[in-house]
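for the recovery benchmark. tokens below, seq after
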């Protein structure tokens, strides 16, 4: 019986979770709605909100888990990547709390935690992937194909050379004048549109790497030229535009994933990260997996976005190996993974 408290504060969500081994006892998230007025996350506002939220969120997480702080065996926290101001709040709290309780503190890489979220156990009954497996990690800041041999052995075999898929979704939404956050808005509108209404060129990048900057630029110029001829073009074609850009992004993602399967021979496939909540991507993955004979693992919706349960389970695997952090460590903005 190992109780781990997880702390997540990499961006604008303050989250705390308690797990018993890999079973989720609580997973509390405090969102920050202040950023919607600015069309994106404001780092200074995010860090200030984390300072206000972290103690109440941890308190609720412990109460919902029905344990006291003295029953905790370790505290795991997101060390990076993310916004430094936000990470500093979570890092400082975790180290101080662990020091006061005289228990180990465990640093966790945010991206590795997304990949290991598939090992969380709760009432959803999701099947866990078998090693080795390939994980398509897709978020606002990262797009990677990772070969996972064990909880501590991961190798990036494909990555974006510029922008991430999540950023492409958000920028397309912003160009269209959709509210923040844009990715979910694109997904919502795409359900009612024709994905083949507009065709956008796809990048030709060698190997398993991705690129989305060219697609963003092509989408911007296409709308600019279309608006010159028809000022109402976006309003009239909003659903078809959303469906078409979403279809293109998903095609780019899955072509490289299919190539990775061919090159590695691994058919145990998982998806993780915020963009794994996209309904179009989830359905496309299910369809491709059935066609190709993959064993597919899609996380429960509550574990797609940033959450502390995934930090806790990544910390649990490190706890088993005795891989603890020093009190003098500092967070990092860019992934060391």
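predicted aa per position
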């Amino acid at each position: 019986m190992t109780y781990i408290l997880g702390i997540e504060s990499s961006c604008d969500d303050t989250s705390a979770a308690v797990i018993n081994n890999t079973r989720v006892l609580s997973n509390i998230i405090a969102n920050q709605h202040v950023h919607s007025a600015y069309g994106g996350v404001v780092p200074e506002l995010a860090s200030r909100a984390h300072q206000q939220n972290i103690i109440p969120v941890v308190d609720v997480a412990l109460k919902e888990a029905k344990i006291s702080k003295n029953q905790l065996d370790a505290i795991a926290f997101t060390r990076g990547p993310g916004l430094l101001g936000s990470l500093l709040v979570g890092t400082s709290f975790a180290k101080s709390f662990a020091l006061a309780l005289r228990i180990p503190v465990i640093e966790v890489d945010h991206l590795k935690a997304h990949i290991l979220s598939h090992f969380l156990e709760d009432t959803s009954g999701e099947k866990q992937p078998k090693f080795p497996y390939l994980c398509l990690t897709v978020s606002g800041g990262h797009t990677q194909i990772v070969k996972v041999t064990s909880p501590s052995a991961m190798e990036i075999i494909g990555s974006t050379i510029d922008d991430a898929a999540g950023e492409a979704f958000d920028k397309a939404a912003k160009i269209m004048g959709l509210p923040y956050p844009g990715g979910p808005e694109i997904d919502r509108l795409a359900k009612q549109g024709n994905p083949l209404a507009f065709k956008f060129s796809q990048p030709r990048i060698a190997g398993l790497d991705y690129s989305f900057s060219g697609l963003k630029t092509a989408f911007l110029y296409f709308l600019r030229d279309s608006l010159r001829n028809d000022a109402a073009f976006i309003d009239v074609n909003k659903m078809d535009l959303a469906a078409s850009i979403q279809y293109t992004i998903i095609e780019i993602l899955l072509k490289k994933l299919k190539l990775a399967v061919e090159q590695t021979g691994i058919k145990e496939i998982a998806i993780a990260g915020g963009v794994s909540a996209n309904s179009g991507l989830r359905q496309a993955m299910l369809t491709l997996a059935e066609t190709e004979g993959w064993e597919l693992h899609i996380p429960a919706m509550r574990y797609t976005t940033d959450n502390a349960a995934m930090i806790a389970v990544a910390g649990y695997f490190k706890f088993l190996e005795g891989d603890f952090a020093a009190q003098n460590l500092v967070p990092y903005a860019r992934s060391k993974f």
